[in-house]
Each structure stands twice: as structure tokens, then as C-alpha cells.
Amino acid sequence: MPIEPRLIVTGHTPDGHAVFVEDRHPEPVRVQALPGADFFLLWGTPDGTARVGSPNPSPVLRPYFPGLGGSRALFLRWAPHADAPDAPDPGTVRSEVADTLPGLLDPFEDDGDGMHTTDTVDYAICLEGELRLELDHGAQVTLTPGTCVVQLGTRHAWKNTSDRPALMCYVQIGAVRD
Question: Phi and psi at residue 41, in whole multiples of 5°?
Fold first, then answer.
């Protein structure tokens, strides 16, 4: 049975007591840029210094990638490998992504092979299925459940080459590139 993403958020009452402020199953977000993939946007913090203690915490989920000191947490269920559907009009895809997941396509290279580079430290944890991580010059590794990748701003691409969905948890922290 596949994992159903769930988000629980804690916070504080005005007098400082710890409480649960949210408990929900986030709705999946789909875009034509990744056919069949489900994005579950969980939480994000503003760029700069993360803060705690607010009685009314609220997530920052846009833009898709955090800026310096910001963070994002999400689940992404990658569709199984299959024959690629006819490619929709690139302008339509870009427009849809700009409205739905703004900033998602910004770091991607134009040739369509999925390679991209972000100014983030990413913790990528495989929860279900298998996902292939490709780096420069053909280096690759297959992730299986329980694998954690620490992605340090390298050029990379994620690909599901299996016949089953793959569920990943990504935590992204905006960083400075040396």
C-alpha cells in the first residue's frame, strides 16, 4: 500500500503552550512538465533566518526553490517509466508551471534531459520504489527505500526508470554558491 503523505505542524498558543496547529493530507499538485508526477508541498520557511515561536505559523511555498536561508519540504511521487506522451507545447508547459509551481523550471537546462543545478543543500530521501540520480558525465546511482542523498548544488537529474512509482522526500535549504 503506498504511503499517503501527511503534514502535522506544531505551534504555540499566545501564552506559550505547545499545540498542534495543523494535521492534514496535502493535495497533490500536477504539472505537464512531469507527466504523472504528484508534488505534495508540505512546508517552507522565508529566506533569511528561520524563526520559531509564532502562535500562527504559516508556510512559504513560493517560489518553488528557497532563497538564501529559506527552506522547503515536499514529497514528490515520480510516475513509473513509460512511453513518453506527446510533448505539449513548451510555452503552455512553462505558463502552467509559472502559475502552479513558480520557479520550478528556472534551474533546468533547455535540452529537456532533466539536468539542473540549484543553489540549495538538498536532503533527498527515498521512501518507496526506486529512483535514479544522474550526475555529470554519466555517473549515476539507483536510490532504494531508506537511501538519503545529500545534494550539494551539483548538476543532476532524477529519473524513474522502473515500472513502479517512486516516492521521495526532499528538504531544500537555500545556500550560497562558492
Answer: -75, 120
Residue with cell 504555540: 12
Is the pLDDT at 47 greater than 70? The verdict is yes
The CATH number given to 7-174 is 2.60.120.10
Is this structure's pTM higher than 0.85?
A: yes
**Distances, alpha carbon 80 to alpha carbons 30, 42, 77, 172, in Å:** 15, 23, 9, 24
Cβ neighbours, 10 Å, residue 100 = 16
Spatial separation of the C-alpha atoms in residues 66 and 64, rounded to whole Å: 7
- Domain locations in the chain as residue ranges: 7-174
d(Cα 130, Cα 140) in Å, to the nearest integer? Answer: 13
